[in-house]
Amino acid sequence: MLSNWPIRTKFLVGLELLLLLMVVLAGSGLYATYAYRSLVKTLSWRSVELPLAGALSGHVADLRIALGELRGIALVDFCRLDAVAFNDPSAFRVRSVRDTFRGELADFERTLARYRRQLEHKGLEDLSITDTQLEWATLRKIEAALARVHQADRDEDWVLNNIKVEQLDAELANLGRLTAELPSHLHRRLGGFAAEVRATYRTLIVGTWIVSLAAAAILAIFIRLFYRWVFLPLRILVGGSRQVAAGNFSYRIHLDTCDEMSELAEAMNQMTERFQSIRDDLDHQVQERTKQVVRNERLASVGFLAAGVAHEINNPLASIAMCAESLVGRVSAELDPADPRHEVVFQYLDMIQNEAFRCKEITEKLLDFSRTGPIRRQAVELGGLLQGVIDMVRHLGRYKGTEIELEAAEPVLASINPQEIKQVVLNLLTNALDSLAAGGRVRIALAAREGFAELTFIDNGCGMDLEVQEHLFEPFFTRRRSGQGTGLGLSISYRIVSDHGGEITAESPGPGLGSIFRVRLPLAAKTREIDHHCHAA
What we know:
The chain has about 525 residues and is an alpha+beta fold. It contains twelve helices and seven strands. It has helices spanning about 5-45, 50-70, 90-120, 135-155, 160-245, 260-335, 340-370, 380-395, 420-435, 465-470, 490-500, 525-535, and strands at about 380, 405-410, 415, 440-450, 450-460, 505, 515-520. Strands 2-4-5-7-6 form a five-stranded mixed β-sheet. Strand 4 (about 440-450) and strand 5 form a beta hairpin.
């Protein structure tokens, strides 16, 4: 079913397969690239927490160091710190250490704020390493402890109260434990993250193999379809073209793709068939023209010989006929009509006269056959000429039992010598009538075609075999059923038609199936113009 698609649809299917292949490969590559990018960004994001957690632990240590210094100072006994004289060295040192403690506490708060902002960063992949719930829980504990430290620091005289100092030290110890707890969460997740990354890696490897196999399958399908839809039909077309180019015009290209390739193959087959028909027709025309040239050469040779022979034997024939006629008169005077020899002599003298006149008739036809020279032509309406010949032949007694039919739809003017063409029509008509049995029919059709007047003589007589058709127009060749005739009538007709620039052909389906004689003569100028306009319309 796929092979019946148009070739444009097949190319679109191939293009879609290529696009699918590109999408699959690009998708797998992009997925692997983004997975790697997400992993790197996640590790980069979480790695920032470690120095911040270390800084928080360092600030707590500094706070505890400052608190330890306060413990070691031997303070004078006074009720309020601000009541001590400003020039007292111990009071000054206490204020300095307390200011340092508060400065470290402010640094701790700033670092804690940065750590909080780092945890608030979102938009990363949903991985185990991105889970910060434990960090947030610890962060809230640190903020609660920090609030208690601030609460204790608000009392100006807490440095003079050992109990408050101990409580503050306990809070700082708790802060140190909590800040040390922050990186431990990340360390534990990094340990589990290695296994998760390993599983993701295996998944990516398996997915890459699957995508590669799918891409290979798509590529194989595309190559196979391209071979069946494009390459193989093109190879068949090229092979068929080479066969035709080599002269094998009977070769036909067979494609069952039912697409444009198949249409091209069918068009090439039709072109080859037409070319073969044209070639066969040209070969036939060449053979016919060759036969005509050979026939014309033979007729010319026979005509040249016939002219000399006719002139040489005409005078002896005339002498024989005159002598026979004189003998008839002399015998009539010398012999008694009752004498038995009278009838015999008269019979032989009559035979001599008849055969002499028959020979003279043959010589006259030979002279007609060999006669050459300029032909005087004029525009003649062929329908009237044909009708005149038909009317003349119908009065002959030997053709009384036959039927002659003329078909002339419209007047046809031809540039001819009317006497010679009458002779041609008479020869062809009598030749057709002589081939008929009793009740036979001859049909004469007249029409103008392609600048020529076409006369067609169709009879249902004895027909002709191939041998007769081959030698039909040769001089002295005759196969009349009556056994009479000189065999010059068709030769003379052929010479007359050829001299007029026309052609005469004969064909027959076979013996007993009748014959068809076709004569083509050039049309007169007026009829040719009318015929041209009719074909143009």
